[in-house]
Design a protein that fits this description.
The protein folds into 3 domains: 1-92, no CATH class; 108-254, Peptide methionine sulfoxide reductase (Metal Binding Protein, Guanine Nucleotide Exchange Factor, Chain A, Beta Complex), CATH 2.170.150; 262-404, no CATH class. The protein has 405 residues and is an alpha+beta fold. The two termini are 30 Å apart. The strands form 4 sheets. Strands 1, 2, 6, 7, 17, 18, 19, 20, 21 and 22 form a 10-stranded mixed sheet that branches. Strands 9-10-11-15-14-13-12 form a 7-stranded mixed sheet. A 3-stranded antiparallel sheet has the order 3-4-5. It has helices spanning 27-30, 108-113, 146-154, 160-166, 200-205, 264-279, 339-349, 361-375; strands at residues 4-9, 14-22, 31-34, 37-40, 43-47, 61-63, 79-87, 119-122, 137-140, 176-179, 183-186, 196-198, 214-221, 227-236, 239-248, 252-255, 283-288, 294-309, 322-333, 354-359, 384-385, 396-402. This is E3 ubiquitin-protein ligase E3D. One of its GO terms (molecular function) is ubiquitin protein ligase activity.
Length: 405
């Protein structure tokens, strides 16, 4: 098995690949393309036809990386990398016009197709959270950034104050399920009594003498104490009163089970793309809600691309050739703190163009593990960014987040 990794460059219709061979093998002389199959000395490297990729037999370019960080063989058994450039005969399936489109999960349309009895359960222990005996009205919420968008629009009006007076926050209503991109907004009246509890760590940090009159505070499942969402609270006569609940889609299960079962990274992709479009930012700090710890710094490098690999740079794999639609990111794992991490967390935190995305700590750690694992599909010399021009991402890693749809 010859390790193989490639990325489709849709803008120039090229498949840029990397393989690794024994030091005695001159890939520039031996590598061939036969009917979209990459062959080295009669050994199949990658059957691209099997994953619906057609490449030209012309314009094949094979060369060793012109990179001082790429490994140099120190013995005859060592593998050396080769870069391969292949011309695509047809453009990648994902058009640039579709790159900003993000699949929305568990919309009002899907819920309306479900049976009349609806239930939302904790993903970890299956405790019911929503009163399923009620017939609900189901409506989609606007974009998370609707308020900012409207403010930008009305600033051009002759009397913007008239519009501003009518701009009020969207409130939870009894017997109405309001469906957001990553959560359901529910009135407390429709939450199963005793199924939720305030997160004690986050609650203790709330300062009711400062800021807004209402605060969003993390809530957990009362049975297993895992995070399930946020509650909007106000203080009345020294007691916290619950006004609304957001149940995060990635923390719950729906019953009956829908055909589509998204995972946390599906909702992360929505947050990354939507925030990038509205705020014109590509840098994000991923922060834990309970611990307030920074788990990762993420630079959104390519919103939508395809990679092809056989997982050849990892030993424990079946090495099947796969093609995946992904989001390419440059990231820094901040879970192990050192001077380098502290420097870049401070640098990014003080940069006004950087956005904070806050999630339950469990999912932040899950994201870091996913990114670290994705880096391993790359050849070792391509896993880190060390270019002197990339000041904001020195010694960051390259990673991938899968995109659905």
């Amino acid at each position: 098995m010859i390790p193989f990794f490639a990325e489709e460059l849709s803008n120039i219709n090229v498949l840029r690949a990397t393989i690794a061979t024994e030091s005695a093998c001159d890939a520039a002389e031996c590598l061939e393309i036969k009917d979209s199959v990459l062959v080295l000395k009669d050994q199949v490297v990658a059957d691209l036809k099997s994953i619906d990729i057609a490449v030209s037999t012309q314009n094949l370019v094979v060369a060793q990386p012109n990179d001082p960080s790429s490994p140099q063989p120190d013995n005859d058994d060592a593998l050396i990398p080769w870069e391969v450039k292949l011309s695509l005969l047809k453009p990648p399936a994902s058009l640039r016009s579709q790159q900003n489109d993000v699949k929305e999960w568990w919309t009002s349309k899907l819920l309306l197709q479900q049976s009349l009895e609806k239930q939302m359960r904790c993903q970890h222990c299956a405790q019911g959270l929503l009163d399923s005996a009620i017939k609900y009205k189901i409506k989609d919420l606007p974009s998370e950034h609707w308020y900012e968008l409207v403010e930008c629009w009305i600033c051009h009006e002759t009397k913007p104050e008239e519009h501003q007076a009518r701009m009020k926050p969207i409130l939870a209503r009894p017997h109405v399920l309001l469906v957001g991109t990553t959560y359901f907004l529910i009135h407390p009246e429709n939450i199963v009594k005793g199924s939720l509890q305030v997160d004690p760590v986050v609650s203790k940090r709330a300062n009711w003498d400062r800021g807004t009159l209402t605060k969003w505070i993390a809530v957990n499942c009362s049975k297993c104490e895992n995070a399930v969402g946020e509650g909007q609270y106000c203080m009345e006569d020294g007691e916290m009163q619950l006004l609304a609940v957001k149940l995060f889609k990635y923390c719950i299960d729906l019953a009956p089970n829908p055909s589509e079962q998204p995972v946390f990274t599906d909702f992360l992709v929505s947050d990354l793309v939507n925030t990038a479009k509205i705020h014109a930012t590509h840098r994000f700090l991923i922060q834990g809600r309970q611990s307030q710890r920074i788990y990762a710094l993420i630079w959104l490098f390519n919103w939508d691309t395809h990679i092809v690999h056989n997982d050849g740079y990892r030993e424990k794999s079946d090495h099947t050739l796969v093609r995946e639609r992904v989001m390419k990111v440059i990231y820094l794992d901040c879970t192990v703190t050192d001077a380098h991490v502290e420097k870049y967390v401070a640098l990014w935190s003080n940069d006004k163009s950087t956005d904070h995305l806050i999630y339950p700590d469990t999912y932040c750690q899950q994201l870091v593990d996913t990114l670290n694992l994705s880096t391993l599909v790359l050849p070792p010399f391509m896993r880190k960014i060390n270019h002197p021009a990339m000041v904001f991402t020195k010694n960051f890693s390259i990673g991938f987040i899968r995109r659905s749809g």
